[in-house]
Amino acid sequence: YTASANAMLDVAVKNDAADRDALMATKNDEGRTVEEMVTEKSGQTGEKIELAYYARIEAPYCAAYVHFNKKLGTVLGFNKEVPAEVAHTVAMQATAMAPFRSRRLTAPPSD
What positions does the domain Translation elongation factor EFTs/EF1B dimerisation occupy (predicted)? Predict the structure, then answer.
């Protein structure tokens, strides 16, 4: 699973896919679309595999957290660099909230 997910991530980063639909239609270096890659992996494993959500984050500083079960994760964009421990904690708390979908959240800048 990890190798397949990383291959799809490489396609997303290399091609700067704007949204899920664009990513699903994007081809890798071998000419296969991400949609074909997902379908192939699903057929190999016999499990329903889907790329349910995808969003491109543009921010000066990003942080990520993947829960120990490897089923939930969060990527956050910050408007400036923050200490790694703070970014990790915020991402971990966002993951614990298990939001249904991503959305842009803004907080007022501190003085």
Answer: 4-99
Burial of 63 (0-12, 13-18, 19+ CB in 10 A): buried
Report the distance separating Cα 49 and Cα 1, nearest Å.
10
Q: What gap in Å lies between CA 75 and CA 103, rounded to an integer?
A: 11
Return the domain boundaries, the chain: 2-45, 57-111
Which residues in 21-101 belong to E strands, given as ranges?
61-66, 73-78
How many other β-carbons are positioned within 10 Å of the β-carbon of residue 86? 11
Does the model's pTM come out above 0.70? no
57, 65, 71, 59: which is closest to 17 by C-alpha?
A: 57
Confidence band, pLDDT 50/70/90 cuts, at residue 48 = confident
The two three-digit tokens of residue 35, written as one number: 């949609």
